[in-house]
Design goal:
The chain has 73 residues and is an all-alpha fold. It has 2 helices and no strands. The chain has helices at 5-26, 38-69.
Length: 73
């Protein structure tokens, strides 16, 4: 059976890590001073959304691939 999950899950985790790092870098957490910038909260929310949508899309595609591979009858 073909599956897209082995590719989609690591890709989703990488996206989440990159967006979280961008959020932390933008709010200057690594410089020990936290600045609450709204645009970087948007970046974090976008990263979480992309993570969830990649996982959901992988699951939906796995179901569709499974249904197309089954013999009809």
């Amino acid at each position: 059976m073909k599956s897209i999950r082995p590719i989609a899950i690591p890709a989703a985790v990488i996206v989440l890590i990159l967006f979280t790092y961008a959020f932390l870098l933008g709010n200057k957490v690594f410089e020990s001073k936290f600045e609450n910038e709204p645009i970087f909260w948007y970046v974090l929310a976008k990263g979480v959304f992309c993570f969830v949508s990649l996982i959901a899309t992988a699951r939906i595609l796995d179901v569709l691939i499974d249904r197309l591979d089954r013999p009809r009858g």
